[in-house]
Amino acid sequence: MGNTPMGDDYTRPDPISGAVSTDTGSLLARSEGGAPGVAVIDSDSRRPDATGEESTTGNGKAMAAMGFSQAVDNSEGGLVRSFFPLIGAAFGVAEGMLGVMSSISMFARMIFGPFWAMMADRFGRKRILVLVTGVWGLWTVASGFAPDFTWLLILYAIGVIGTVASEPIINGLLPDLFKQSQRGKAYGTIRGIGTFVGVILGPAVGLFALGDDPNPDAWRYAMWTMGGISVLSGILIAMWVKDPRSNTARDDMMAEAGRFRISDGVKLFKIPTVALMVGMLPLVTSLVLLSFYANFLVAERGISVFQGTLAMAAFSLGAVFSSVMGGRLADRFVRKLGEKGRITLMQLYLVAFAGAVALATQVPYQGFLPALVFTLVLGMVFSIGFSGCVLPMVSNVVPRQLNATGFAMLFSLVQGGITALITLGVGFIAAATSSQTMFLWFVVVPYALNALYWFLFYRVYPRDVERQKERTEQVEAGTF
Questions:
Q1: Average of pLDDT values for 319-334?
Q2: Burial of residue 146 (number of CB atoms within 10 Å: 0-12, 13-18, 19+)
Q3: Beta bridge partners of 20
Q4: Cα–Cα distance, 196 to 189 (Å, whole number)
Q5: Which tens digit of pLDDT belongs to each residue from 428-442?
Q6: What is the rounded average pLDDT of the residues 111-132?
Q7: What's the average model confidence in pLDDT over 270-289?
Q8: For residues 257 and 36, is the Cβ–Cβ distance under 8 A?
Q9: Per-residue pLDDT averaged across 117-137, rounded?
């Protein structure tokens, strides 16, 4: 499979090697920018803008609606964590139940994320998005009426089944709304909108719990409000988002990345770097931290529920900064140290994050100002390793047609399942001891141990990168 000029005619009866004529257009297995794969090169009735010739103006409202939708869905998950002190007091339950509720959300993402994507394939992405983002918000409203904790758990579990759907569906919809040269900007803009709205939305809903002695039913008002906002986001999706086509996710995978198969994902674990990634995932317990941290600030650092929402908003802003900084730092380390630079940066990050968590959770303090500062610092370290090291390293050793498969297997299935199980258990440990003790043994210590574990990557990762480069060159030369 060699590089072929884009202007050639691939619709002739006897197409050249590597070209495939389909009912929707002409496809050619070729490399673009060093990335082997199947690209739409002539026409594709499913994606009229695939060649980048048609204007994508007029999609600003669609981006706003989808960014707002993601912010609402993410905020619904944080709502329970922020208001759990009031929920626990209302129903007489301890932090163990916070672990149960947090793990329900993680299990739902792992199981129902792919389910909703398949439903979107079959019935249309916009239709499913309106259902799970808008109509499904009524379950959050219903949660606010729960007469006891059992009913709250049932209604919350049903609600989060829909909450996990927007991200995979929106990620699949964006490539049809924007031509290839604009998609990076589109994804970044969606994330920026979602983060900005989320930073405002959390403290705004937290106003219901304003004061040192908030209304005991403040959590109900928050549920009703968030459910109503979710319904509003569905209305905006219905009005402003246009789905260019249906039955898309399966077609996208065929046209751009190859068909997903579990067998492909299993084979990826034969790559030493990927296998080592699996081994380090039980030591990546930052999601455990996020599940209990807001409640910790209220219960053990003496701030109010409303102040807790402000602190978590500061964390979100810091996390955006660390995402950008992580990529820039990684580039510098690679220029100085070669491929081993990412490993070195990851080890420094792991030590730094363990230190930041220790600072935020083990140093004795009381009051809002130190909580705000420590939480902001935590966010400013939080995403450095993932954005600058882990994601690029996986991409560098996995065949590019299977990048999405690799990410799904590692972080949705493996890490999602591990984190859900850990979260389910540590909530009861926190209730029996304290959140401070739990953070020490289940976040600080694992991250410190992970820094040592990463010494194993120095031997295998550079070698895996070279092997993948050789495979890529062979594919481009047509000799693979």
A1: 87
A2: buried
A3: 27
A4: 10
A5: 998 888 899 999 999
A6: 83
A7: 93
A8: no
A9: 86
Report strand pairing: 35-44 vs 25-32: antiparallel
Contact 325, 381 (CB under 8 A): no
Centre a 10 Å sphere on the Cβ of residue 123 and count the other Cβ atoms it contains: 13
Convert the pLDDT of each residue in 159-198 to its tens digit. Answer: 999 888 887 788 667 767 776 556 656 766 776 787 788 8
What Å distances lie between residue 259 and 35, 37, 207, 311, 365, CA to CA?
17, 11, 47, 43, 53
Give the mean pLDDT of 248-257.
Answer: 40
User: 467: which residues sit within 8 A by CB, 6+ positions away?
Assistant: 397
CA dihedral (68, 72, 78, 83) positive or negative: positive
Closest-CA residue to 86 (of 211, 184, 178): 211
Neighbours of 373 (CB within 10 A): 15
Report the alpha-carbon distance of residue 24 to residue 2 in Å, rounded. Answer: 23
pLDDT of residue 239: 92
Its pTM surpasses 0.90: no
Q: In this structure, what token pair is assigned to residue 263? A: 């067998």
Q: CA 177, CA 310: separation in Å to the nearest integer?
A: 34
Residue partners of 2: CB distance under 8 A and separation at least 6:
18, 30, 476, 477, 478
Q: What confidence score (pLDDT) does residue 56 get?
A: 47
Q: What is the mean pLDDT of the chain?
A: 80
Strands 19-21 and 35-44: what pairing? unpaired
Amino acid at 423: T
Cβ neighbours, 10 Å, residue 58: 10
Averaged pLDDT, 37-45 = 39
> How far is the CA of 149 from the CAs of 157, 220, 454, in angstroms?
12, 13, 42
Q: Is the pLDDT of residue 79 over 60?
A: yes
Query: Quick one: average pLDDT of 377-397?
Result: 90
What is the band of 333 on the pLDDT scale with cuts at 50, 70, 90? very high
Please name the residues in contact with 314: beta carbons below 8 A apart, sequence gap of 6 or more: 372, 375, 376, 379
